[in-house]
Amino acid sequence: MIGTVGALQFEVIQYRLEHEYGAKCSYENLNVYKACWVETPETNHPEY
Question: What contacts 4, CB < 8 A, 6 or more positions away?
């Protein structure tokens, strides 16, 4: 799952996957909107 701000970013990701890694992909739009902050009490958390 990839989230972007605009449709052009999906096209850039698709182009780069194919031309830099030889990986073809396709994508479809989903009407899902969610934004959240990821926080941890430790600033040096290894999985952060």
Answer: 10, 13
